[in-house]
Amino acid sequence: MKCPFCGHLETQVVETRLAEDAAFIRRRRQCHKCDKRFTTYERPEVSFPTVVKKDGRRTDYVVAKLRASFALALRKRPVSTTQVDEAIERIEEQLLNLGLREVPSSRIGEMVMRELEQLDKVAYIRFASVYRSFADVDEFKALVEQVSG
Hints:
The protein is α+β, with helices and mostly antiparallel strands. It has 5 helices and 6 strands. Helix 4 (121-131) packs antiparallel against helix 5. It is elongated and about 70 Å long.
């Protein structure tokens, strides 16, 4: 593996550890030329389904878009990054378990809403109000009553 410091192509693995959840392997490497150490992570490569947008366009699944949705809904809310990461992992596991080549974006949106409902009611209402494009205040009021009731 190429050294990120000097670009030398010969490095040696000096330590290997399995992550706590066994989802990846962490390796400490040392460059033969500059002797600096760096960390690499080895994860299995998985193929997520293509996302089909409401207008019919097809796009690749991008975890950063999912993370951005959570960040926007959870802005200034007391939810840890670890909790968000776990929610995203659950959604990704569901997507993989579907076994589909394509999945509607609306289905992913519903998964996000379920996770947000468990994490933070205010974030859930924020996301739902944008995601569901409420036509009037009564629809929004009904959602708030449902969550608080």
